[in-house]
Design goal:
Rossmann fold; alpha+beta; binds adenosine-5'-triphosphate; 3 domains; OB fold (Dihydrolipoamide Acetyltransferase, E2P)
């Protein structure tokens, strides 16, 4: 008998399609009865992970256990899971009852039992008395409820839900979110839910798994993920935020926008480069200019239903997003303050680019599949492997096809108050990171140029 607290255990799962890695060493445990949400941008591998759980695909590496049993050789219909898809996938020619009863009839379940179970499932999804309705006459929300009833009628231990509300309009989606939460409570089974909608994830889940590019970024409760994002990607993806380059001066003192601020974080060391995250609702516009920590000019102010969203520009050129119940008209000079507890300090994942390359000759190095000119290198032989470091700001980007030394695609853009921090996946499948003031868009193809003097080349010691 299995007595683990965990109903699902995913161990070191990787999945590639052709040579493209879609999931990279994913490990994750789901508690019995938990509402777990896998959250991430389009293409990050959420659906692939769900399909591996359902058994529709098999992993390239790693192992999945459900209820203590390794699933590697267990076909989808023998797994204790059922899946609800984004599109309802109902049989259009069957009525509600026959749609829900379909699987049970195939399993040759006794007719009376089928009737009882279908009725109970309909009650669970709030659709008693709908059994004879033609499914095509139902609204999107009602059809999705039928799809959920069809999944729970099999009494799965785990319900897998792949963006089940994505096709519904906003009002219906909000209503269905509440109903799903209720259903989860009364069914008492485990829900694994996939969405790219941060608000939906924060509303519904006990635990959120944030993914990007096939890698888990953070696992935590909605409050943890919102208040304590572990890196700039999570902070940017979950809600609105100001993310700025900063230096941790010492414990409880951080410097950004050329000013020192008290904070409550410790243990980062002294003069350490960090990122800070400040939520727009945590920047206060104060009327007493003397007491302000910094000043700026309101550049835009838009009413968002409950609060006003403003962008304020400081004299040093930083743009700060602020939410406030009061409107400050564009052009107004304002003073601002931030409480120490509202400054969230995060370790930087990197502070410069490091790429492996090969020295071609004393003044040329091969990186990113191309030959780049460098300043004369001494003490390293041609053909030796080298580490090539360069600053984020040392890269010049171009869209002129005759200009770039090598090429890549913009995969992620992070606005840092006074600059954009771009992640570029090169044609050689390596990531480089670039700071720029120019405005580029996601998926833009860019040529990469680096001045010879910016390349710092050292012998690679393995
Ligand atoms: P979305 O929200 O857009 O569905 P997702 O996070 O669910 O995104 P996946 O559907 O898991 O992402 O896809 C991850 C990556 O794997 C994508 O780049 C996708 O094109 C690729 N992919 C998924 N299924 C296949 C397949 N059968 N063959 C080849 N590539 C695939």
């Amino acid at each position: 008998m299995v007595n683990s607290n965990y109903i699902i255990e995913i161990k070191n799962i990787s999945k590639s399609f052709s040579d493209k890695m879609v999931l990279d060493d994913v490990s994750l445990s789901v508690k019995r009865g938990e509402f777990m949400t896998i959250l991430g941008p389009s293409g990050c591998g959420k659906t692939t992970l769900l399909r591996l759980l359902a058994g529709f695909n098999s992993a390239s590496k790693g192992e999945i256990s459900i209820d203590g049993e390794v699933m590697t050789n267990v076909p989808p219909h023998k797994r204790p899971v059922n899946t609800v898809f984004q599109r309802y996938a109902l049989f259009p020619n069957y009525n509600v009852y026959d749609n829900i009863a379909f699987g049970l009839k195939l399993q040759k379940v006794d007719k009376k039992e089928i009737e009882q179970r279908v009725k109970r499932a309909l009650k669970m999804v709030g659709m008693t008395d709908y059994e004879h309705r033609d499914v095509q006459s139902l609204s999107g929300g009602q059809q999705q409820r039928v799809a959920i009833a069809r999944a729970i009628v099999n009494r799965p231990q785990v319900l897998l839900l792949d963006e089940p509300l994505a096709a519904l309009d906003l009002k219906m989606r909000k209503d269905m979110q509440m109903e799903l939460k209720e259903m989860h409570k009364s069914l008492g089974i485990t829900f694994v839910y996939v969405t790219h909608d941060q608000e939906e994830a924060l509303t519904l889940s006990d635990t959120i798994v944030v993914m990007n590019e096939g890698v888990i970024q953070q696992i935590g409760t909605p409050t943890d993920i919102y208040n304590e994002p572990c890196n700039a990607f999570v902070a940017d993806f979950i809600g609105e935020s100001n993310i700025l380059n900063a230096t941790m001066v010492r414990d409880r003192l951080v410097r950004f926008m050329d000013k020192e601020f008290e904070c409550i974080d410790e243990g980062f060391g002294e003069n350490t480069p960090v990122d800070v995250v400040i939520r727009p609702e945590d920047v206060y516009i104060i009327r007493n200019a003397e007491a302000a920590m910094f000043h700026g000019t309101v550049r835009s102010c838009i009413f968002k239903g409950v609060h006003y969203e403003m962008f304020v520009e400081t004299p040093d050129g930083y743009e700060i997003q602020i939410q406030d119940y009061n409107c400050f008209e564009p052009g107004t000079e304002v003073g601002m303050m931030i409480k120490p507890a509202d400054i969230h300090v995060m370790r930087k994942e990197r502070t410069e680019n490091h790429i492996e390359g090969t020295l071609v000759d004393a003044t040329h190095v091969e990186i990113l599949g191309e030959t780049f000119e460098c300043e004369a290198v001494e003490g390293i032989e041609a053909g030796e492997s080298v580490d090539v470091a360069f600053d984020f700001s040392a890269v010049e980007l171009t869209d002129d096809p005759d200009d770039g030394t090598s090429w890549g695609t913009i995969r992620f853009i992070l606005y840092k108050g006074d600059r954009y921090h771009l992640t570029i996946r090169t044609d050689e499948d390596e990531d480089i990171f670039v700071d720029t003031h120019d405005v580029w868009e996601d998926l833009d193809e860019v040529g990469i140029k680096i001045a010879p003097s910016a390349l710092r080349i050292t012998k690679l010691t393995k």
